[in-house]
Amino acid sequence: MGATKLNIHSKDINAIAAIAKVFAHPARVSILQYISKQESCICNDIVDEIDLAQPTISQHLQVISKADLLKGNFKGNSLCYCLNLERFQEFQELFNSFFNATKFNCC
User: For the chain, what is the mean pLDDT?
Assistant: First the structure.
């Protein structure tokens, strides 16, 4: 989908597509699951756990961050990640609303 075509869809539809992109790759799901179990973690911790190269993990973290599902702060020179639980709640409500409305519309 070209960037110029995003404006033909509603804000909610674009939000659903953005979050679906995050969950469309098993590495990103694994990263989210790992982060959810930590108080905070740095990229190298994720690399050790997920067993992918650091640049690959960084690319996946960018996709997750673009959906605003992560919060990060610096501890020294390291960026520590945690989940943005408010955003998770927003997406859960958005998905539930979409699935319920779609199911209701079916004959």
Answer: 86
